[in-house]
Amino acid sequence: LTASAELSVQGMTCAACTARVERALKRLPGVLDASVNLATERARVTYLPGAATPADLKTAVEQAGYTVLTAP
Ligand code: 9UX
């Protein structure tokens, strides 16, 4: 059983930024996949709801140096 979340991420200006955000998310326990779209400034995350929470996802992106505008 997996859950899916979409985060609006502000502050990414290049492809290396998106890679940083993806790495920060994928490093979290319970996160199975993370994919960032630079054009839409959104991160799509697949995770195990028992192991990671939307707040965890938001914190990881913020600690990587970016701003999460809306969390699911
Ligand atoms: Mo390139 Mo993205 O310096 O911060 S990694 S703009």
Relative helix content: 25-40%
Class inferred from helices and paired strands: alpha+beta
Approximate strand percentage = 25-35%
Bound molecules: dioxo(di-mu-sulfide)dimolybdenum
Number of strands: 4
User: How much is the radius of gyration in Å?
Assistant: 11 Å
Question: Uncertain spans, ≥5 residues at pLDDT below 50?
Answer: none
Order of helices and strands: EHEEHE
Instruction: Categorize the overall geometry.
Output: globular
Strand adjacency order, main sheet: 2-3-1-4
Averaged pLDDT: 96
Note the main sheet: 4 strands, antiparallel
Tally of alpha and pi helices: 2
End-to-end C-alpha gap: 18 Å
Protein name: Heavy metal translocating P-type ATPase
Subcellular location: Cell membrane; Endomembrane system
Domain HMA: 3-69
Family: Belongs to the cation transport ATPase (P-type) (TC 3.A.3) family. Type IB subfamily.
Protein architecture, described:
The chain is 31% helix and 35% strand. Strand 2 (31-37) and strand 3 form a beta hairpin. Strands 2-3-1-4 form a four-stranded antiparallel β-sheet, with helices on one face. The protein is of the alpha+beta class and 72 residues long. It has two helices and four strands; from the N terminus they run βαββαβ. It has helices at residues 15-26, 54-63; strands at 3-10, 31-37, 42-47, 67-70. The structure holds dioxo(di-mu-sulfide)dimolybdenum. This is Heavy metal translocating P-type ATPase. Belongs to the cation transport ATPase (P-type) (TC 3.A.3) family. Type IB subfamily. It comes from Deinococcus depolymerans. It is found in: Cell membrane; Endomembrane system.
